[in-house]
UniProtKB/TrEMBL annotation, chains A, B:
It comes from the Bacteria. Keywords: Kinase, Transferase. The keyword NAD does not apply. GO terms for molecular function: kinase activity. This is Putative NBD/HSP70 family sugar kinase. InterPro entries: ATPase_NBD, ROK, WH-like_DNA-bd_sf, WH_DNA-bd_sf. Belongs to the ROK (NagC/XylR) family. It holds the Pfam family HTH_24.
């Protein structure tokens, strides 16, 4: 089935406005888009004919005749898929990108792209059946690593061994029979923040994604910035020290080797083994290993050695951010994916470094905050990713 | 006099196309802009009526009736002003931003903004008289330091003591009686590269400006990126080392303290005084001081100690670029303002660091080149800056 698309830039703009701002009257839409009343009515009528827009009930009166509200049609349904290193999250949204249903389950990306992408397709199918949808309008996918955006394939993703070059977009698109786009997960989460988080009110912002794999999504001048070869934001393997902890990429001293989960756990293991953290040493002796929850628990409980580990990681991330913030001068920096219980410790140290070391013009009024969307940023952003393509004139 | 502006986005696009690509026939313009023939003719006729476009002679025949070429009107004349730390450069261009006349003279920015800005106005007036122009269409200005773009004022510019908050835009605009915009010089030079240099064929590029003050201009997705508070590209005072050479800003270890002219001369003085460079020690004994030309001459002449100084500076710039390039993934990096004779030594070392240390997705095919426009990038870019405003729909 060929998807219906707006026919011109005005229709596309009207649709995106209804997606972002919710139901609006014709008068409000006309004011915002700057179209004459007759032209606006013609474009809206065409969007209704195309099945992209529908009437939503009467609008509040401005005096004169009662007008009705318009909204994105109820047949517009997007799916958002986020492939994580250890789990799969899938949601279906309406045309305003509200999540209607969501599924999450463990997944092991090391089993290779074939089974994981097939499973993602099954989960989307399950939600589609549950919601009684004959057809999805489009599917967006985020995955943890660099993505060749035009090709829809991962590029040498450290966190996804065996996924290089796998046609994620084309495989899932063929399976689900609708327009599909794939992007790096940090880019997708940045789009989620732009739609439903604090990013909504900023034209320029950075979304830093912590967790197993570190990434950064850039929204610049109101749109995702992917760069010349869709590698923008690929900061995980910036080298902070020539002699540093080993990284999953095979090098040493990368940002991710300090601030990724494996890096934090590795530094906590050192603290346990050296006796600097007696509590973690006990835990290690009992359990045979340490988890991120152990590290976060010890830090939250006031263990000074573990707090030092967390602060050191945050300081290194802060030093990288100093350069990035001076360079692109964002309106806000949003930190997402911080391990439970560690967010505020990380944030305090990142702020201290960035505000102390950056050019005043770049950071004088720039907030650094934790994401308040949490995991939902990913699926909403993935839905927004594909909605941007489907809600654009051909 | 109120300047004439295009009336809608189509007229603006047609004008910018004629500015960038030179004379075109109606057919070529219609093909490029995607307007119907009747609408195109109406918009072009209106641009001719407004005095912004004129007929330029017959076009090559495509068969059928001979059509005539259109071009930006001969009454459209921009001025570009570049305020350097030690000189003033002023040019007047036609509507395609070809330089028609240029003046350059020494200037001392430490004499304060009043006299320098007044002198810039005089030089523009001189060129205007020389070319017999009643009126300029607009003036663009670049200056070495952060600029609050919306206000048209320098912000705490290290290289321009006493210039903070001086209304450069409004003073010069009132003096010359035409639309005026002021921006950071690296941004302006990036615009020059976009118009007339290798930047022309790239949507995303960085222009790194070496010299007395270091700066970086970003063109992202085809447009200058200034950031939330117009501080983007402000990399001069990124701290590379806690214990480093002193910087003009009062801190130590800044990028500029290593790679700016004062930094290079300082390191060369060390090499002279320590006896590592006997040639520069002689020169210092004779002249009492060292200049950038001395340093460049010694490096070009094969003095190993001075070459080491230059390579060290380049390596540090390269390390900063690794982060910036990973972060925004430009299509090309252009290095401008390299001291005469040092460009290729700097470039070789910068390339070595960036290609060795960056993520392959970001730099696999990314060239790093020296600017081939030289000083002209500044005045052409300043003219382009104001042309972007004047050639936009109101």
């Amino acid at each position: 089935m060929v998807p219906v698309r707006p026919e011109n830039a005005y229709q596309a703009r009207l649709l995106r406005m209804l997606r972002d701002d919710g139901p609006r009257s014709r008068v409000e839409l006309g004011d915002a888009v700057g179209l004459s009343r007759s032209r606006l009515i013609a474009e809206v009528d065409r969007l209704v004919e195309l099945g992209l827009v529908e009437t939503a009930g009467p609008a509040a009166s401005r005096g004169g005749r009662r007008s009705s509200l318009l909204r994105v049609a109820g047949t517009v349904r997007f799916a958002g898929v986020v492939i994580g290193t250890d789990r799969l999250t899938v949601a279906v949204t309406d045309g305003e990108l509200n999540v209607l249903a969501e599924l999450r389950e463990p997944a092991d990306v090391r089993s290779g792209p074939g089974p994981v992408v097939a499973r993602a397709g099954e989960l989307v199918g399950k939600l589609r059946a549950e919601l009684g949808l004959a057809q999805l309008t489009g599917v967006g996918v985020g995955l943890p690593g660099p993505v060749a955006f035009r090709e829809g394939t991962p590029i040498a993703p450290g966190a996804l061994p065996g996924w290089h070059g796998f046609p994620v977009r084309d495989t899932l698109g063929a399976e689900l029979g609708c327009p599909t786009l794939v992007d790096n997960d940090a880019n997708v989460m940045a789009l989620g923040e732009q739609h439903a988080g604090i990013g909504r009110t900023f034209d320029d912002f950075l979304y830093v994604k912590l967790g197993t794999a570190i990434g950064c999504g850039l929204v610049l001048r109101g749109a995702p910035h992917r760069g010349a070869t869709s590698g923008a934001g690929d900061i995980a393997h910036l080298r902070l020290a020539d002699e540093g902890p080993g990284c999953a990429c095979g090098e040493a001293g990368c940002l991710e080797a300090y601030c990724g989960e494996a890096g934090l756990i590795g530094a906590a293991l050192d603290a346990a083994r050296s006796g600097r953290s007696p509590a973690l040493a006990d835990r290690l002796a009992t359990a045979g290993t340490l988890t991120m929850a152990d590290v976060a628990g010890a830090a939250a409980g006031g263990d000074p050695a573990v707090q030092a580990v967390v602060r050191d990681a945050a300081r290194r991330l802060g030093q990288v951010l100093v350069g990035l913030v001076s360079f692109v001068n964002p309106g806000i920096v949003i930190i997402g994916g911080a391990p439970d219980g560690l967010g505020h410790t990380l944030l305090a140290e990142i702020r201290a470094v960035v505000y102390r070391r950056s050019a005043p013009l770049a950071t004088g009024t720039m907030p650094i905050v934790l994401s308040d969307l949490g995991e939902r940023a990913g699926v909403v952003g993935a839905a927004r990713l594909i909605s941007e393509q489907v809600f654009a004139a051909e």
